[in-house]
Amino acid sequence: MAGDGLRMEKAGEALPFEIPGASGEFRIQILNEDREKGVVTSIVHLPAGGRIPAHFHEAGSEMHYVLDGDLIEDGETLSAGAFLTHAKGVVHGPHESRGGARVLTVQTWQSEGGEFDFHPAEGGASASGSGASGKAPASDGADAGQGQQPASTGTATQEEAAAERGREKGYT
């Protein structure tokens, strides 16, 4: 593996890191990174009451899998087992947590020299400049993210219902 751009680390103590405009002390555990491909896998530790403002990434997409705790994505509460993807240039967030959470994150972009691809989104405009936020109006809270079954959308399967909800939220 030497020289192929892949670096593996033992899961150790999560280190503090700063996120522009965030409140709370966020920590990160880098699990692996492939500099050649620009892929980083980490566990992000969200503190109780922490908040990351809505933002987008120009360099690539990212995926999130909630390991434990609660992740509030644009007002929708998600629990362990929830999976989100955010395409390059799509506004997502704000990300919040009431009681704290650990989120497995895979990014297809990489930080360089302490700088990372994070662009706060004012007014919900996407990076494409189209003015579309890629998000639907705020959820009424009656969804699977709060331990209830999703409302019927007229779709035949759970997968179709999840896909429909994802399109409404701008998830891919």
Note the topology.
Layout: E1 6-8, E2 15-17, E3 26-34, E4 39-46, E5 51-52, E6 55-56, E7 62-69, E8 71-73, E9 76-78, E10 83-86, E11 95-96, E12 101-107, E13 119-120, H1 158-169
Antiparallel strand pairs: 1-3, 2-3, 3-4, 4-12, 5-11, 6-13, 7-10, 7-12, 8-9, 8-11
Short description:
This protein is mainly beta and 172 residues long.
Strand and helix order: EEEEEEEEEEEEEH
pLDDT < 50 stretches: 1-9, 124-159, 168-172
Distance between the termini: 32 Å
**Strand count, sense and closure of the main sheet?**
7 strands, antiparallel
Number of DSSP helices?
A: 1
Rg, rounded, reads 16 Å
Strand content: 25-35%
- The residue fraction in helices comes out at under 10%
Number of strands: 13
Category from helices, strands and their pairing: mainly beta
- Give the overall silhouette: globular
Roughly what is the average pLDDT, rounded to an integer? Answer: 72
What features would you describe in this structure?
The chain has 172 residues and is mainly beta. It is built from one helix and 13 strands. The protein has one helix spanning 158-169, and strands at residues 6-8, 15-17, 26-34, 39-46, 51-52, 55-56, 62-69, 71-73, 76-78, 83-86, 95-96, 101-107, 119-120. A hairpin with a 4-residue loop joins strand 3 (26-34) and strand 4 (39-46).
